[in-house]
Write a structure and sequence with these properties.
mainly alpha; membrane; receptor; Gustatory receptor; cell membrane
């Protein structure tokens, strides 16, 4: 499948020859990004399969959940799947169906489902962190009289929390390479689609053709933006869940001991536990090239605007 994909991309020179000027080079760069992303995904899927299987077993052994947690409706995913179905149904009516499918739609789909799989795992791990926070909250609320035995319970929860944090970092590192190439491909696709959208609006004469191209480009850009939002949301959500609530509950328990004036060496250990919670908060990046949080959107918007202006100036 991957070899056929490369063949179709490399055999699309007739498509490149039919375009002129900056459109030709934008098409070429986008196709190169597609080939790079698909080749990287194929290699990484093979290399990381055993490591992911091992990490999933460790996660299953470390977790506290005894039943499946209730899942909320993710409207971003629902809208994303609807847009994917619309784009897939429109391929038979497009001008270059095979080229568009293999060079644009297929790499996008593979990387989207790669991140959706990671999102499911991080959602499960996030539920585990919430469960630990609930246990700490129960310890805080049930603390009517000073009882130093609660420190031992908090210590066990903090160690379990630390193990889950390490597993979360190890699991996300398995996806760093594919995330890096996916974002490179994403940037090329979004610049390509916006530039072609502006180009077609200016130079396409037929109103019906212009409306169809405009609608298709908007839906594809919407898919790319939803994919980016889902990816950044899952990383920021996991970062927020790892330590923020747990540290607050530990501080509340410490304050109760202080108010009761029952401070001893065991209670002082709560300070070390609090520091452990703070130090286990992960920071997700794409191999340290850029952070995987909402601040990444600022960089993307600035870069996309710059490149679109440059391409339009070349065309003019």
């Amino acid at each position: 499948m991957n070899l056929y994909f490369i063949y179709v991309c490399l055999n699309s020179s007739t498509v490149f020859n039919s375009t002129k000027g900056s459109r030709k080079y934008v098409d070429i760069l986008s196709t190169i990004g597609s080939v790079l992303s698909m080749c990287t995904c194929t290699v990484m899927f093979y290399k990381r399969r055993i490591e992911i299987q091992s990490l999933l077993i460790q996660i299953d052994q470390t977790t506290l959940q005894t039943s499946v947690s209730q899942q909320t409706i993710n409207w971003l995913k629902i809208v994303l799947f609807c847009d994917i179905i619309v784009i897939a149904a429109s391929f038979p009516f497009s001008e270059r169906p095979f080229f568009s499918f293999f060079c644009f739609f297929l790499p996008t789909l593979v990387n989207i489902f790669d991140h959706l799989f990671l999102d499911d795992i991080l959602t499960y791990l996030g539920a585990e962190f919430d469960l630990i926070s609930q246990h700490l909250k129960q310890r805080r609320d049930s603390m009517a009289l000073p009882d130093t035995r609660i420190v031992d319970d908090i210590q066990k929860l903090s160690l379990r929390h630390c193990d889950l944090s390490k597993l979360t970092l190890q699991f996300t590192r398995c996806f760093e390479v594919t995330t890096l190439t996916a974002m490179m491909m994403w940037f090329g696709y979004i610049v390509n689609s916006i530039f072609f959208l502006v180009f077609d609006l200016i130079y396409t004469k037929h109103l019906e053709t212009r409306i169809l191209k405009f609608a298709g480009a908007l839906i594809y850009q919407k898919i790319l933006i939803l994919w980016l939002c889902i990816m950044l949301k899952m990383y920021t959500r996991t970062e927020d869940k790892v330590a923020n609530r747990a540290v607050g509950y530990v501080h509340d328990i410490w304050n109760k001991f202080v108010m009761m004036q029952k401070i001893n060496s065991e209670v002082h250990h709560l300070q070390l536990i609090s520091i452990r919670f703070l130090n286990t908060k992960p920071k997700f990046t794409a191999m340290n090239f850029f952070p995987l949080d909402w601040s990444f959107c600022h960089v993307l918007i600035a870069a996309i605007t710059t490149y679109i202006i440059i391409l339009i100036q070349f065309k003019i």
